[in-house]
Amino acid sequence: MELMQRKEKILSAVVESYIATGEPIGSKALQDIASLTVSSATIRNELASLVDGGYLLQPHTSAGRIPTRKGYRYYIDNIMKVEYPSDRLKERLERLINSGEQAPETILAKTARALSELTDMAAICTSPSSTDARVHKIRFVSTGRHTSMAVLVTSNGMVKSKLFRCEFVLTPEILSMFDKAINEKFSGVRLLDINVAFLQTVASSFGELTLFMPEVLAALLDAAQSAIKTSVTVSGETNLLFIDGYSLNCARNVLKFLSDSQSVTQLLDDIYPNKVGLSDENNRFELIGSSVITSRYTIMSENAGSIALIGPMRVNYKKLIGLIDYSALCVSNAIGQLLEN
Description:
The protein is α+β, with helices and mostly antiparallel strands. The protein folds into three domains: 5-79, Arc Repressor Mutant, subunit A (Orthogonal Bundle), CATH 1.10.10.10; 87-129 and 230-340, GAF domain (Beta-Lactamase, 2-Layer Sandwich); 135-228, Enolase-like, N-terminal domain (Enolase-like, domain 1, 2-Layer Sandwich), CATH 3.30.390.10. It contains twelve helices and ten strands. The chain has helices at 5-21, 27-33, 40-52, 69-79, 87-98, 104-119, 172-186, 196-204, 214-228, 248-258, 261-271, 317-340, and strands spanning 56-57, 66-67, 122-126, 135-142, 147-154, 159-165, 232-235, 276-278, 290-299, 302-312. The strands form three sheets. The protein has a five-stranded antiparallel sheet with strand order 7-3-10-9-8, with helices on both faces. Strands 4-5-6 form a three-stranded antiparallel sheet. α1 (5-21) packs across α3, α2 crosses α3 (40-52) and α5 packs across α12 (317-340). The radius of gyration is 26 Å and the shape is elongated. It starts with a helix and ends with a helix. The mean pLDDT is 91.
């Protein structure tokens, strides 16, 4: 239901005041904050109407009002304007994400750590979905006379490597031969299609080269199976125990939830395409009283993995949504550059 303009102005003022102070607000204070030209009695009537509608709550008779889950939801969907990070904060975030040696998993881990440090919340990053992921390229890196690393790069930006050993000496010429033959057969193949039957078909097509391939193909099968699994990186879980006004019981429930990677991945899939999941909207009892703010990063213009923040419902949504959306853009650019190289 859409609220009248004056009610929206009052609701917005209550939500933003409560986010900033954690204290209920009354009609007199609202008149000053919201720059309303109506009387305190009119504001009280509007507040009572918002309470009756389930948007606000009066903790006790003599107190002011605070937002309910429904009030936060209306504010986020209909009133709030997202605020994106300042140029200075953008530069800091880019520096935290892009510093040092880069690999997709490292980029995601740095992003989670950066967001948890900047927000004092728990931050989550998931690796890209592997449903339609394909082999982008395969490289072989010598690690010894008889050992080499098979490096699998997928179309969704993941990099998985497996060591293999052969009885014969792995000269540069042999590794170059592996590179050419393997990429011809594997390039563009879906990860889900790389199984024993596929490897048997590939091996039979190599002719005399098949004798050199068993260890190589076994390593690639292991790498493909590893790349299929969605990984979840969590940072800043203990921040939840020290957030002012956030109950210890809520924090403990979220910590329990974060320990189950499968449930975390499912939740982020369920929330999409919404940006925010509030309390019971998340359909997880461990998240009652908590909020989840999410964004998706893209690879080759396709939605890939998720980035999320979890914490109390009393948070600055307009700033956090802007921050997490910019973080997703940074991740998209960083992983995209890796695929181009």
